[in-house]
Specification:
Elements (H helix, E strand, L loop, with lengths): L5 E9 L1 H13 L3 E8 L3 H21 L6 E5 L4 H7 L2 H4 L3 E5 L16 H13 L2 E4 L2 H16 L8 H8 L1 E3 L19 E6 L8 H13 L4 E6 L9 H8 L4 E4 L5 H9 L3 E3 L9 H9 L2 E5 L4 H4 L12 E2 L3 H15 L10 H8 L3 H18 L3
Parallel strand pairs: 1-2, 1-3, 3-4, 4-5, 5-6, 7-8, 7-10, 8-9, 10-11, 11-12
Length: about 375
């Protein structure tokens, strides 16, 4: 095993999946971490000021004798700007940028909301890095495809080679997941239990999910319902409407106050449903798999990759065609399975085994080793 590295980690948006990623990795890492972070709010301001803010902080630490072997940051940092503001001792460090999301393909409800300045910040950060880590191949490919389209629309000096330069330094490094407890062998008696676990925002398409439940209820198919996830100041109105419409079916509703409560919301359910129009990885899907849920997701985004559709033919059963009617048919079928032996039909261990490759002890060790390899290959 190679030596422990001294990591300088910079996170301008320390919340949500960004925080979970850093906390999870550090918890299982053999390396030594110096972590500078900023609160997870006002993301545009974070992308604009973080380079200067962190450069000032690093300057103070260097004066106090700090030393590092490698620099790690997320896509929320303007890495090129940061490198231009710091001392040579930091500029010569091998640099890794981790892309949780990007500002070229992250969905906005209205096209006019997109500010391409932030997408170009993502591009220059990737170009300034020695290694660009994406959480999925889908994420990498969608970002680079869109970057090429945007550059071709520019009036001149299009720098089209940037796409292939970034591709050449790109690596797929899925995040780790804290493996939740598995439900015991005894299932709570009753009808099909559905869980929807996602941010309460439009890109997760809650409208389609609740439309499918409405159709399922109209068919006379009984079900229980957990709708959990992070909520923000502007929650789509469909949630309040659904709370009234499905009051008899709801068991859990809203953000769960503890990790244990969230894990229970997964473990007690039969099936995890996604209707997402946007997903660069799918942490809640992996958590649900680990908890024993049967996944039912649209055949798009990162889901085929995460479920291993290209390497395991059994994964095909976990996809529906992406339509409301297709989701209704699959849920109705699963409801009938509950009455005749359970949704997994004897193959319940598949999900846990698939999720295990994303467990933090596995992913932390893999990313530790990737950093060591990068540092060992760097010029003296």
């Amino acid at each position: 095993m190679s030596r422990a590295l001294r990591i300088l980690a910079l996170e301008p948006y320390f919340g949500g999946s960004h925080k979970a990623f850093i906390d999870g990795w550090r918890g299982y890492s053999r390396h030594e971490w110096t972590m500078y972070d900023l609160p997870a709010r006002k993301w545009k301001w974070r992308m604009r000021h973080a380079a200067l803010t962190f450069a000032d902080r690093v300057r103070q630490e260097l004066a106090a004798g700090a030393e590092w072997d490698v620099l790690l940051c997320s896509d929320m940092l303007n890495l090129g700007e940061f490198v231009g503001l710091v001392d040579e001792r930091v500029r010569r460090l091998p640099r890794v940028v981790y892309f949780h999301e990007n500002q070229l393909t992250y969905p906005f409800r209205y096209a006019t909301e997109r500010d391409y300045h932030f997408g170009f910040t993502n591009m220059t950060s990737a170009l300034a890095a020695d290694a660009v880590w994406f959480n999925s191949a889908f994420h990498r490919d969608s970002f680079l495809d869109e970057l090429g389209r945007v550059l071709r629309r520019m009036p001149d000096y299009r720098s089209l080679d940037a796409v292939e330069r970034i591709r050449g330094s790109s690596v797929i490094q899925p995040p780790g997941v804290e493996m939740p407890a598995v439900r015991g062998c005894e299932r709570t008696p009753g009808p099909l239990w559905i869980v929807w676990a996602a941010r309460w925002e439009h890109d997760k398409d809650p409208e389609s999910f609740f439309a499918a439940l409405e159709a399922l209820k109209a068919r006379g198919v009984a079900f229980r319902l957990n709708v959990v996830g992070e909520q923000f100041d502007e929650t789509p109105a469909v949630f309040e409407e659904a709370r009234k419409r499905f009051g008899d079916e709801i068991v859990r509703w809203g953000f769960q106050p503890t990790r244990a409560a969230y894990e229970a919301a997964l473990a007690e359910a039969d099936v995890f449903v996604s209707t997402a129009q946007h997903e660069f990885f799918g942490i809640s899907l992996v958590e649900a798999l680990a908890a024993g849920c049967y996944p039912l997701v649209p055949r798009r985004l990162a889901y085929p990759e995460v479920l291993g559709l290209d390497v395991d033919a059994r994964a095909a059963q976990f996809f529906y065609d992406g339509t409301v009617s297709g989701l209704v048919e699959r849920l109705a079928d699963l409801a009938s399975r509950v009455e005749s032996g359970g949704v997994w039909q004897g193959d319940r261990g598949w999900g846990r085994a698939r999720a295990a490759q994303f467990a933090w002890p596995v992913r932390g060790a893999a990313m530790d080793e990737a950093l060591s390899t990068l540092v060992d290959a760097a010029p003296p």
